[in-house]
């Protein structure tokens, strides 16, 4: 049995961690009345670890309390945005030398909030990675229960790719030392191919296995959140996604759950088809973005036909114009859920 029950087809996403505009308990209760049973929140690492090794759980405790008062379960998507007080060599670095600390990533920028000015730790620095894993472990130990489950977002910067989208970002000192030790060459190429690709699979791929074992051991399942923008940003590592999936499936037969936000975004072409192919090929129970409640009427039949497991639906989403909760949103959610349930065998 997975955390998401068989008759659940919409996970409501609340973006208070990123944008500050979150649902209140009565609004969450309205989601429950419309048929939603699970909500997803994004705790921000830097808001929790306020000084080195010290965790302030207040904001995440509030998320859990709101979900409980609204009558829904809660998924906590961890890994978003590291603290900025670590040593310089703990962070990713791009090929121009820019350190990924409090960095505004124009290529991935959204409508303000926490997604801009992010920090991201290195996959290769052993102390940085151990510290990150200790943080994830502490979150799991505090929150995992029958009604709350921790999951991983998919990248060390909290985004939708293995690496940030601004520039190739595997040039921190620990990364370069790793590349030289494994390949005998001076440094990786800016785009992921040849020796660079082989090295990343041998190193970052193993980090993904190590990380997801933590969640399999804690919950009996694991989640991924990878997108397929490689045709636009080839240095982000999205062309490694299928190989990462293969590594994970070779390591465990635990249920693989997935979220994939951009399946039906107009600017993302045929990403829905690619996400559906991944779901089929790797047995992923994939929940895809509906483009808000307003996208549910147009996208529900397509998502069902493509074999997706359900939707992740952000209610308050400033970048698509949803700045306040309105009755039509709950009506669209209820109608989509009825359509999903009617399509089940």
Set down the secondary structure blueprint:
Layout: E1 10-13, H1 16-19, H2 25-34, E2 38-41, H3 45-48, E3 49-51, E4 54-55, H4 58-70, E5 73-78, H5 126-143, E6 148-152, H6 173-183, H7 194-219, E7 222-224, H8 241-251, E8 256-260, H9 271-282, E9 285-289, H10 296-305, E10 310-314, H11 327-342
Parallel strand pairs: 1-2, 1-10, 2-5, 5-6, 7-8, 8-9, 9-10
Antiparallel strand pairs: 3-4
Provide an overview of this structure.
The protein is of the alpha/beta class and 345 residues long. The protein has a domain at 16-254: TIM Barrel (Alpha-Beta Barrel), CATH 3.20.20.80. Helix content is 39%, strand content 12%. The chain contains eleven helices and ten strands. It has an eight-stranded parallel beta sheet. A two-stranded antiparallel sheet has the order 3-4. Strand 9 (285-289), helix 10 and strand 10 form a beta-alpha-beta unit. The longest helix is centred in the middle third of the chain and has 26 residues, at 194-219. It is globular and about 60 Å long. Residues 110-114 have low confidence and may be disordered.
Cα gyration radius (Å): 19 Å
Low-confidence segments, ≥5 residues, pLDDT <50? 110-114
At CATH level 2, the architecture of the domain at 16-254 is Alpha-Beta Barrel
Q: State which percent range the strand residues make up.
A: 5-15%
| Main sheet summary | 8 strands, parallel
Give the CATH H-level superfamily of the domain at 16-254: Glycosidases
């Amino acid at each position: 049995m997975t955390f998401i029950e068989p008759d659940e087809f919409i996970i409501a996403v609340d973006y208070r961690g990123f944008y500050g505009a979150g649902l209140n308990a009565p609004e969450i209760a309205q989601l429950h009345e419309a048929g939603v049973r699970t909500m997803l929140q994004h705790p921000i690492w830097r808001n929790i670890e306020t000084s080195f090794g010290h965790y302030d759980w207040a904001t995440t405790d509030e998320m859990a309390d709101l979900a409980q008062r609204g009558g829904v379960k809660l998924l906590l998507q961890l890994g978003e945005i590291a603290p900025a007080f670590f040593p310089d060599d703990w962070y990713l670095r791009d090929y121009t030398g820019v350190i990924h600390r409090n960095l505004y990533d124009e290529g991935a920028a959204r409508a303000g909030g926490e997604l801009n000015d992010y920090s991201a730790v290195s996959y290769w620095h052993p102390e940085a990675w151990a510290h990150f894993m200790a943080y994830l472990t502490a979150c799991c130990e505090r929150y995992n229960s029958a009604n709350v489950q921790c999951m991983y977002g998919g990248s060390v910067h909290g985004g939708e790719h293995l690496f940030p989208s601004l520039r190739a970002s595997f040039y921190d000192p620990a990364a370069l030392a790793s590349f030289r030790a494994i390949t005998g060459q001076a440094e990786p190429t800016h785009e992921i191919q040849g020796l660079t690709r082989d090295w990343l699979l041998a190193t970052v791929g193993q980090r993904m296995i190590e990380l997801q074992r933590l969640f399999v051991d804690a919950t009996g399942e694991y989640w991924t959140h990878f997108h397929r923008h490689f045709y636009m940003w080839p240095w982000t590592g999205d062309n490694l996604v299928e190989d990462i999936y293969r590594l994970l499936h070779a390591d465990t037969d635990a249920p693989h759950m997935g979220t994939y936000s951009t399946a039906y975004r107009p600017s993302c072409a045929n990403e829905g088809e690619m996400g559906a192919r991944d779901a089929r090929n790797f047995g992923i129970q994939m929940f895809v973005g509906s483009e808000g409640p307003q996208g549910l009427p147009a996208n529900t039949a397509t998502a069902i036909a493509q074999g997706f497991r359900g939707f992740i639906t952000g209610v308050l989403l400033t970048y698509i114009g949803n700045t306040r909760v309105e009755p039509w949103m709950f009506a669209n959610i209820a109608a989509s859920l009825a359509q999903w349930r009617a399509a089940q065998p």
